[in-house]
Design a protein that fits this description.
Elements: E1 11-15, H1 19-31, E2 35-39, H2 42-52, E3 56-60, H3 68-75, E4 83-88, H4 95-100, E5 105-109, H5 113-128, E6 134-137, E7 140-143, E8 148-151, E9 154-156, H6 160-171, E10 177-178, H7 179-187, H8 196-209, E11 216-219, E12 223-226
Parallel strand pairs: 1-2, 1-3, 3-4, 4-5
Antiparallel strand pairs: 6-7, 7-8, 8-9, 10-12, 11-12
Helix pairs in contact: 2-3, 6-7, 6-8
Length: 232
């Protein structure tokens, strides 16, 4: 019962203006041992997320008062919890905008509840699997416990997925990593999204790293390599 057999009940916030959908998801998630909170719009969700500190948010894109994209951006100001976006089939939803707002994954309605549960459990596993070591490469220092990145002593603000991606690159420095390898190890083997997700996040990561973005090399037709010269 519950996620991973853990005694702690992971708290999940469901955000959707459709009461029937919220009720259905609540029943399914509570039957699996999760604690469930609800919000009918983005503004309510921000307040709930700030006060209740959920371990994961399931967030609809199209809602009154505040839509999912703006809501996601606001939650990312104070929380790194995984966020899974919901979008209706045929809806004018830009995946890049969703990812840029800080979402980790997205599921298209109508969806199989088993698929959504698989995404939820995969996101929680990844979120819980952070190591507590210090990674160093040249002027780059990563504290995986405090989730802090410093470049030549200066802190860099990365969202949760950008941080996990940068850690993976640093852990495998000088190795050529394919997009499929990156997806499997950063997003999870059961992630069903496109490999273009890697390119989107990599471009954002490079911009945030500024002058250090050049340490991430594109290997044409294959993927990426993080290359650091420790010798000054």
């Amino acid at each position: 019962m519950g996620y991973g057999g853990n005694e702690k009940r992971n708290r999940i916030l469901i955000v959707d203006d459709e009461a029937k959908l919220r009720a259905m998801l609540r029943m399914i998630l509570e039957n699996r041992g999760y604690e469930v909170l609800e919000a009918a719009n983005g503004r309510e969700a921000v307040v709930q997320a700030m006060n209740a500190k959920p371990e994961l948010v399931i967030l609809d894109v199209m809602m009154p008062v505040m839509d999912g994209i703006d809501c996601c951006r606001e939650i990312r100001q104070f929380s790194d919890c995984p966020i899974i976006m919901l979008t209706a089939k045929g809806e004018d939803y830009d995946q890049v905008s969703g990812l840029e707002s800080g979402a980790d994954d997205y599921v298209v309605k109508p969806f199989s509840t088993s698929v959504l549960i698989a995404r939820v459990e995969a996101a929680l596993r990844r979120s819980a699997g952070i190591s507590t070591s210090i990674l160093m490469a040249g002027d780059v220092t990563i504290d995986t416990q405090s989730r802090e990145v410093k470049l030549n002593g200066a802190s860099v603000d990365l969202n949760r997925k950008e941080f996990d991606l940068f850690c993976y690159l640093c852990e495998n420095r000088d190795m050529v990593l394919s997009r499929s390898q990156i997806l499997e190890n950063v997003w999870g083997y059961d992630y069903l999204g496109s490999e273009s997700t890697v390119d989107t996040h990599m471009n954002r990561l490079r911009k945030k790293l500024g002058a250090y973005g050049g340490l991430i090399k594109t290997v044409r037709g294959v993927g990426y390599r993080f290359e650091v010269d420790d010798e000054e």
